[in-house]
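Run: sequence + coenzyme A -> complex structure.
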Amino acid sequence: MAVGRPLSPYGDGKSLKQHIDAHGGEFSVMPFGKVRAIVVERETRRDVCGLALVLPPGQLIRQYADQGSVAQRSLSVAVAEIDLLAVDPDVRGQGLGTALLSEAEQWLANRKCRVVTAKIARGDFQVMRWYRRRGYLVAAQGEHLCFSMHNVFLDCDDGNDGYQMAIKGLGGTSIRRAQRGSETYVTVEGQKTISADRKAPARSICT
Ligand SMILES: CC(C)(COP(=O)(O)OP(=O)(O)OC[C@H]1O[C@@H](n2cnc3c(N)ncnc32)[C@H](O)[C@@H]1OP(=O)(O)O)[C@@H](O)C(=O)NCCC(=O)NCCS
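>> structure
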């Protein structure tokens, strides 16, 4: 398990393991929002065999600094990222991944999160299928996620860093794919198609 890797750019230099040891499964490591780490342990050896890590989209929130702290706070509530979801190979296929994902989504929905994204390594079709079967829409490489909430218009993409976004709506929010000129983008059900002449650059959701 990758529990020893640093939490950068969210943290204060401490590793994820140090945060979990110090605070348990829920802790604040950045100005906007909380991190939730959900762990599955082997009953016999009491070692970790599965982990889900849910974060506010820190990099994205920073990129919206020009919109003010109210907009940033709205973003940190409405959008979340599954930064890590992994189960040890020897215990895969027993429902642990599904249980970790459900627990993460439930926690987020209770906190009024509307849209959750997960990162899938480009071309990992097995994991894409896994997320699709759990209600996620997998964005194509570079495909934008665009929607407005409160007074913020969100426009982001995968940041071209080797991952694609899987996207799901929570708490009754549905996600759909829409057309803008010759391009498609992912948005929230009920939102108008975004005008074809929007020129603002997309921000990156990846951390
Ligand atoms: C994706 C992942 C978290 C799923 O964990 P899991 O505990 O195997 O998940 P589940 O048991 O709930 O579901 C496994 C699926 O594979 C099938 N499966 C059956 N036997 C399996 C086995 N031995 N190994 C893996 N999958 C198996 C299950 O039937 C199920 O299929 P479904 O999607 O059609 O329902 C896990 O494969 C993993 O850690 N992958 C590497 C990390 C990764 O890519 N994470 C996702 C991006 S963050």
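>> summary
The radius of gyration is 17 Å. Helices lie at 16-23, 58-63, 69-78, 96-110, 125-132.
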